[in-house]
Structure formats: C-alpha cells, structure tokens
Amino acid sequence: MQITDIRVRVVQKESKMKAVVSVTFDDCFVVHDIKVIEGEKGLFIAMPSKKTPDGEYRDIAHPINGDMRKLLMDAILDSYQKELENAPQTEGNTETTF
C-alpha cells in the first residue's frame, strides 16, 4: 500500500491542533480528519476517532503495526512542514496538495 496524496489544512488559530490532514492510499482509499498535534515532546498525529457512550474516544481508522504508523506519521509531518514553509501567512485555513 502506497500513500499517493496528502492534503494538509493548517489551523491558523493558536491551539495544540496544528493541522487537519487527509491521506489517500493507492489512489483509491482516503482517510480524512487525521490531526497534527503539538505535544510536550513535539508534533505527533492523532487518527480520526469518535466518542463512545462511556465518554472515551476510540480510533475509527488506524495503522495496525508500528512500521505503518511511523511511515504515515513521517509522511504527514513532512507534508505539514512543507506546507508551513510554502504557505503565505494568512488568516483562516490553508490547503495544499502534495
């Protein structure tokens, strides 16, 4: 499975969430709403999730092994950094396709 497209929407508001990302695999399957979050140890990704009846959040799509998680996180964070370098500093959200 190959990542064939990453779309980054940078969040301009001051918050821990820095971007929302959509990733396309093999030009035929997309996962929306992956978040880029600023944590204590740096940037990381949070997979799309939903709130359960007991108040917990559970991922609705996620990698099932460490190698795929690293590949996905590295590709997303690389695209996010490129977006920051190339995007004009404007109000609101921006989107770039890589």
Q: How large, in whole angstroms, is the Cα Rg?
A: 14 Å
The tally of helices reads 1
Strand-pairing-aware structural class: alpha+beta
Beta strands, count: 7
Based on Cα principal axes, name the global outline.
Answer: globular
What spatial order of strands do you see in the largest sheet? 4-3-2-1-7
Low-confidence segments? none
Average pLDDT, all residues: 90
- How many angstroms does the end-to-end distance come to? 17 Å
Order of helices and strands: EEEEEEHE
Q: Name the assembly state.
A: single chain
**Fraction of residues in H or I helices:** 10-25%
Strand content: 35-45%
Biggest beta sheet attributes: 5 strands, antiparallel
Question: What does this 3D model show about the protein?
Answer:
Helix content is 21%, strand content 44%. By secondary structure, the protein is α+β, with helices and mostly antiparallel strands. The chain is globular and about 40 Å long. The two termini are 17 Å apart. The model has no long low-confidence stretch (mean pLDDT 90).
Summarize the structure.
It is built from 1 helix and 7 strands, in the order E-E-E-E-E-E-H-E. The protein is an alpha+beta fold.
Question: What attributes characterize this protein structure?
Answer:
98 residues; alpha+beta; five-stranded antiparallel β-sheet; two-stranded antiparallel sheet; 7 strands; 21% helix; globular
